[in-house]
Amino acid sequence: MRLRAAEGEGPQAPGLVPSINNVETLKVEHLQARCTRLRKNLGLAAKSLSKGEGQAWMLTLTYAAVDGWKPSHIREALAHLRKWLDREHAWKLRYLWVMELQKRGAPHYHVVVWVPGGVSAADLHLDSRGWWAHGFTNAVKAVAPVRYVMKYVSKFDSVHSFPKGARCYGIGGLDAVGARCRRWINWPTFVQARADVNTPVARTRGGGWLVAGARYLSEWGVSAIGRGYTRLVRLRTYPPTGLQPVGPYSFIPAGVAAAA
User: Which fold has domain 32-179?
Assistant: First the structure.
């Protein structure tokens, strides 16, 4: 079996425990991995965005034509709304959206926006304002925006049937803390165990991770790529750090966590 490292070659980080001889493998289904990432990111973003000021509204953006979709449409519609809120209300738009397919095959968008209390439903009918010229829109006040978003996120099991090149979701307006938390949840587990949201972490040139100045190569390498999946093989295992990650917000010594 021929292997190629998922990350660049380089000196091993202190404490590295090679395990290539064990030939531990992992099959990653692309669709499942994409849906998992979507649910994870939208769940965190919905909770973070809902903590800010303003009223949450649920918008639905539909297409008149089944084949009317273009990737720029949602971006342009939200750009119009963002500029109007900034100009008329000195407000920074916070939003997230999820794409869904109708039974007839046309995509549509479920959008949650957080806007000032003075904004009305008429202000958010993007079709009548000329900001959504592709079909129809609706706007309803959101009583439980997080629950609303997660209801649609739970349906994601067929993103492969979306238009080619379509994004499944979008997030905008996270504050610095929310953005750092979102970044943390997308790191590999061994990086999460060595960093909190404020730790300097970056991908290194040629592969690997730079965590607070220390370079770590990937624990996995690619052994095969098939239709809809990638098979990985474990190249190395990093030992426990003695730190217990507690979500994206902090980590504390394991002994202290047990005592608490």
Answer: Alpha-Beta Plaits (3.30.70)
